[in-house]
Amino acid sequence: MTAVSTPVTITGLPEPARRAKRRGAALGLLAWFVGIVFVLPVLWMLLTSFHSEADAATNPPSLTASLTLDGYKEFFGSGGGASPWPSLLNSMGTSLFSTGFVLLLALPAAYALSIRRVRKWTDVMFFFLSTKMLPVVAGLLPVFLFAKDISFLDNVWLLVILYTSMNLPIAVWMMQSFLADVPVSIIEAAQMDGARLPTILWRVVAPIAGPGIAATSLICFIFSWNEMLFAQVLTGVVAQTAPAFLTTFVTSQGLFLAKVCAASIVISLPVLAAGFAAQDKLVQGLSLGAVK
Amino acid sequence: MSNPTTAVPVSGQRPPTAAPASVGRPMATRNRAREWATRAPLLPALIFLIVVTQLPFVATLVISLFDWNSFRPDRRAFAGLDNYKTVLSDASLRESILTTVLLTASVVIVSVVLGLLLALLLDRKFRGRGLVRTMLIAPFLLVPVASALLWKHALYNPEYGLFNGVLNWLGGPQPEWLTDTPLIAVEASLIWQWTPFMMLILLAGLQSRPLDMIEAARLDGAGNWQIFRFLTLPHLRRYLELGTLLGSIYIVQNFDAVFTMTRGGLNTANLPYTIYETFYNAHEYGLASAAGVVVVIGTIIIATFALRVVSSLFREEVSHA
């Protein structure tokens, strides 16, 4: 962005500009190099997932081995083990529902923290973030005991509640900054016209803060989909999520590298797809409230 | 507790519709009603968070004062601070506190620095920038358990992992990564995972820089380094703090990598993993809770420390903040 800001004369570049251009090209190459280094493990996993087990476990690694879908077939047929579908559906359900609940709770809260500022709103913001400083392990045991008492263990709704609480603080922080972008004058005008809070949120605030809200949802979805500690401790067979399934899948059947890679790719796919598709929003969303 | 939440939205919706009628109302009542109206949308989220996160922590505090093993429920007794004494004197627990600090600090520092360098690289225009960014964020989007499995089996495995495969090609040594340098191996995978996150935050920071100021500085003859040092870095300060804070919060709690890659063996057990073991396998509820409280205190110290260090580093540049 900054590199092009100097106006360029048409008749041949002066020496410093030419040097800058060469340096720019070198830095571009460096960026490419680092990008490849970072993506290489993922590509390696992708390649391995299309190998047969015999080709996957060779040293030195073979790049020319023939490709096969056996790893994926094994994973979905699960080679005698449990089917991955229930856990994938559990993950999808818990992630979508908890993201929905987060939006439902965070949007009004962020409204009160940005548009209709409550007094001491910074203190409230800090309280929200401080709940994130409370590591989940520190509250896990009572949750476990309580859920056991009321026979709520191994229930997807328990995860939905916990994931909602896990993502709510971050969502409030992010949305606070996005809603602060909405000009108060528009909201006041809507209020003059007799619009009520839900209408204002839906018709005035949501369209302007929409991209930010989408980014927030995406991040909540990613964190819910990825979560493992709760899933590991609080679910069993019925409510098991994909990450927890992935771990049992390795330990119970020994190691089948191609199959593990295929499973990892499948389980990461929803997040990879959503994240790649919404990169710009992700960048914008991750800046949280720091800008304002 | 549900009383204010149910009562308030009604008053919150009243002002617009009843606006003409309320003109003659006494100021105090109107102010109070307005204050509740502004507070109301906040309450569901606040109450939900307090119930789901703070109450369990209070319960953890209480349990931490008891000698309680679920195998011997009849011998549950008040133990005062004994569990804390055990946590702080038990060599393996102390070790896991140290491991947590080492793991968190190294991963956060390295990934913030790398993330900054990458963000600076990606802030320039070059061919294929979008593609490079896509490649860079892949590690952040991979499910952490999947990424831990990838590192453990497909990369680190001494028999057929990629690293030793490449070393084999080159005729180099064949180290056992996860047994020779277990903590560094875990840290490397986490740095790989977290650098893109830091890069994204810092890139957002770079792209929100006021370009006219940089332009002006350049016209005044400022060099790249001066612009970075006196304009870019101060502007990035909040983004750096944010990355450090969020990184600390999440990495202190890391469970997936330790659980998957080493099962806490070879001095890689951090506190979350140790607590998981203590409560899930050893059923020592009181002890696990005390360790949990120690993590909370540790997290707060680390988060505060991280903020302080970053803040003081940049204090000179920020004249008016």
TrEMBL record, chain A:
The keyword Ligase does not apply. It is found in: Cell membrane. Keywords: Cell membrane, Membrane, Transmembrane, Transmembrane helix, Transport. InterPro entries: BP-dep_ABC_trans_perm, MetI-like, MetI-like_sf. SUPFAM superfamilies: MetI-like. PANTHER family: ABC TRANSPORTER PERMEASE PROTEIN, MALTOSE TRANSPORT SYSTEM PERMEASE-RELATED. Belongs to the binding-protein-dependent transport system permease family. The lineage of its organism: Bacteria, Bacillati, Actinomycetota, Actinomycetes, Kitasatosporales. It is a multi-pass membrane protein. The chain crosses the membrane at residues 25-47, 95-113, 125-145, 157-179, 200-224, 230-249, 256-278. It holds the Pfam family BPD_transp_1. This is Carbohydrate ABC transporter permease. Residues 88-278 form the ABC transmembrane type-1 domain.
TrEMBL record, chain B:
Keywords: Cell membrane, Membrane, Transmembrane, Transmembrane helix, Transport. The chain crosses the membrane at residues 42-66, 97-122, 134-151, 183-206, 285-307. Residues 97-306 form the ABC transmembrane type-1 domain. Gene3D superfamilies: MetI-like. Its main location: membrane. It is found in: Cell membrane. Signal peptide: none annotated. It is a multi-pass membrane protein. Residues 1-27 are annotated as: Disordered. The keyword DNA-binding does not apply. InterPro entries: MetI-like (IPR000515), MetI-like_sf (IPR035906). It comes from the Bacteria. PANTHER family: BLR7065 PROTEIN, INTEGRAL MEMBRANE SUGAR TRANSPORT PROTEIN. Belongs to the binding-protein-dependent transport system permease family. This is Sugar ABC transporter permease. It comes from Streptomyces rhizosphaericus. The lineage of its organism: Bacteria, Bacillati, Actinomycetota, Actinomycetes, Kitasatosporales.
